[in-house]
Amino acid sequence: MSFGDAFFGISWLDIIIRTLIVVIAMTVVVIYLTYGERKVVARFQMRLGPTRTGPAGLLQGVADALKLVVKEDLRPRNADRWVFEFAPYATFVPVFLVLLTLPFAENWGVRNLALGMFFVFAVLGLNIVGVLMAGFGSGNKYALLGGVRAAAQMISYEIPLVVALLTVAMLAGTLDLNLIASLQGDRPFILVQPLAFVIFFIALLSELHRAPFDIPVAESEIVGGYFVEYSGIRWSMFQLAEYAALWGFSIFGSVIFLGGWNFPFGSEVGVGLQLALTLIKSTLMILLIFWVRATMPRLRMDQLMSFCWKVLIEISFVLLLITGFFLYYNWPQEILALVNWGGALLLLTVIFIRTRRKSEAEDLVGTYKNIEVTE
């Protein structure tokens, strides 16, 4: 029974109530995701993070939100007024639409779509429009450069992201997110398709502009990226979209690869435990994203694009072909899992070696600079 039917007997009211619940939950989660990221990254860097606003700094996110609401909203003189002002909405709305399709528990979301995964794919591409609008409409060369870089990066990494998710859809035989979660009662798909999860996770970092793929918004590169000219409430909408997308895609990844609300206790448990499972799994993915941000060096733009086109796309299409062969000839999934684990370990080893070489090269350059300054 839906919320609207239970309280008022009006079916359309169910949509409004569920949407309001998602909006409230999203706002609270985003406020404390910013706090959590500061504390987690601070621990990696041997700092304390927020400590003064509220007990243990728990009200720091609330204080930042209030500051942004009352802060003056400025628009550059050379900016295109309508494009500039509507860009934050064009960035936020696609993220919000994704949240409306996610199953937080069994049949417990705003709406369960039979083509839920396809809907996420379709909506995912709309976010690029808002990014380009912000870059072109600001009348600033740094914002324009950030918007073009972000669009190129997002379009490129969507290819391996979608292909990796298609391999899971092939195994499940459906695009219904709720049904995909229900098929993982015995074992999650990450055990069968770990390589697909690694590709998905890397492409997800790029889609969210998270380190080490944060070159479009890097302050040291282009002074803040495509939203450098935004302030106040409009700037906060970009931040809201970023952290809401972080939360939403973490839930999406936990449903696709980690069993969502179903694994390991099954669908017989109550809604409360199912919601707790979804929360725990999505939180683990978010902590992994924070961990990568704190430890991985930022890639150059050429490295970022070449890694996508020369490594990820090829691997994702090979994985798609291998999965198709296994399904067509009905070969055991255990062998498919072994192939995936070998490919995932090989890809992670290559990434680790290249990262170590980049870090050692940067340390060497820093040493030479210090020698020159000393002399």
Helix content: over 70%
The biggest beta sheet is recorded as:
none
What is the count of distinct domains?
A: 2
Radius of gyration: 22 Å
Shape: globular
What is the SS-derived class? mainly alpha
- The low-pLDDT segments are 1-9
Counted beta strands: 0
Number of helices: 14
Rounded to the nearest angstrom, the distance between the terminal CA atoms is 77 Å
Q: Let me know the average pLDDT.
A: 86
- Give the DSSP E fraction (strand runs of 2 or more residues): under 5%
N-to-C SSE string, H for helix and E for strand? HHHHHHHHHHHHHH
Summarize the structure.
The protein has 14 helices and no strands.
Ordered list of secondary-structure elements with their pairings:
Layout (H helix, E strand, L loop, with lengths): L2 H5 L3 H34 L15 H11 L10 H19 L16 H9 L2 H11 L3 H32 L4 H6 L11 H14 L11 H4 L9 H26 L13 H25 L5 H28 L4 H42 L1
Helix pairs in contact: 2-3, 2-11, 2-12, 3-11, 4-5, 4-6, 4-11, 6-7, 7-9, 7-13, 9-13, 9-14, 11-12
Q: What this model shows, in words?
A:
This protein is an all-alpha fold and 375 residues long. It folds into two domains: 1-70, no CATH class; 75-374, no CATH class. It is 71% helix and 0% strand. The protein is built from 14 helices and no strands. It has helices spanning 3-7, 11-44, 60-70, 81-99, 116-124, 127-137, 141-172, 177-182, 194-207, 219-222, 232-257, 271-295, 301-328, 333-374. The longest helix has 42 residues, at 333-374. The radius of gyration is 22 Å and the shape is globular.
